[in-house]
């Protein structure tokens, strides 16, 4: 049977070296990174990578910093260690496009391994021209209580964007560079990274001609070895103007008489929303887990909104309700109407607005006395209420 195999030995014995294992390609800006592992075969001394430049005809003029069209290759010397070795090399001056890279390994006698191939994109000017800076609305500068903070509202940006670089001058006169990146989804970390829709730059210096400079960084692929940047954009800012609080003249309860569960007083209608002047129910009032107060507006008035300020332990309130009556006086048999009830803890500034069922229009109520009835979690609950305000607003 010698004749069946001798013909395959013409020209001598064929020797194959170990091939590149785990071959990977990492895209870049007019370049690519190639990586593989040498698992065995200590005879390996070199490797050669072949590719064909795509996208233009062989013989075309060579573009600056790019290789010519057609077939190309590089040779790499390899010094083997005692175990598994990794090989990493970079091929530059590549034209933008899709490449197939073929890798062979050789011993010192010129014997070749079988071919390993990997496909990779190479990015360049076309990709650079396709990216844009993340759009933003006009930032707002909030100068309040000795602080000077710039609030930046953002619009959406492509998922390939990975970072925003911001440059500004702080109140100490120092030029600062701040980087903003994606964060884990705060509502569901399993959904990956997301962009915040607003950012704040603290201690922003307000000065004539002051600007915010920013650019956006992109990775065309998660494993890309090069980051692409947009040009810096300079933008101005506008000043944040806090809404004008209601005039004290509009507050129907201001300076009006207050009656509480155990006593009368004026601190709940003195116009001070802070906790300086407050109503604190006594332990005797709290015994049945219910406390209350009401304000006398002096006469029957139209109203459609109240604001109650719970400045201590609102979390220990089980419910509160707003009652009203147009009775001329308050007696034990006075019939109250309920304007609102909230189960659970109120907000520290709890605002009630009377509207129709679809919340599109105000509904006026008529009352002389406005009562706040409060349920307590336990007898030790020691709440503070600093103010009640009552309004007749013209619009939502």
Account of the 3D structure:
This protein is mostly beta strands and 396 residues long. It folds into 3 domains: 3-124, Immunoglobulin-like (Sandwich), CATH 2.60.40.10; 131-239, Immunoglobulin-like (Sandwich); 248-391, Galactose-binding domain-like (Jelly Rolls), CATH 2.60.120.260. Helix content is 3%, strand content 44%. It contains 2 helices and 27 strands. It has helices spanning 3-6, 125-130; strands at residues 21-27, 32-38, 44-53, 70-77, 85-91, 97-107, 116-122, 140-144, 147-153, 161-169, 175-181, 183-184, 193-194, 198-201, 212-218, 228-229, 233-235, 238-239, 257-260, 264-265, 290-303, 305-312, 317-325, 337-343, 349-353, 365-376, 384-391. The strands form 7 sheets. It has a 6-stranded antiparallel sheet, with no helix packed on it. Strands 10, 11, 15, 16 and 17 form a 5-stranded antiparallel sheet that branches. The chain has a 4-stranded antiparallel sheet with strand order 4-3-6-7, with no helix packed on it. The protein starts with a helix and ends in a 5-residue tail after the last strand. The mean pLDDT is 88.
DSSP strand count: 27
- Tell me the count of domains: 3
The proportion of residues forming helix, as a percent range, comes to under 10%
General shape = elongated
Strand content: 35-45%
The CATH class designation of the largest domain is: Mainly Beta
* N-to-C order of helices and strands: HEEEEEEEHEEEEEEEEEEEEEEEEEEEE
List segments where confidence is low: pLDDT < 50 over at least 5 consecutive residues. none
By CATH, the superfamily of the largest domain comes out as Galactose-binding domain-like
Radius of gyration: 38 Å
In which order are the strands of the major sheet placed? 20-19-21-26-23-24
Sheet with the most strands? Answer: 6 strands, antiparallel
Tell me the quaternary state. single chain
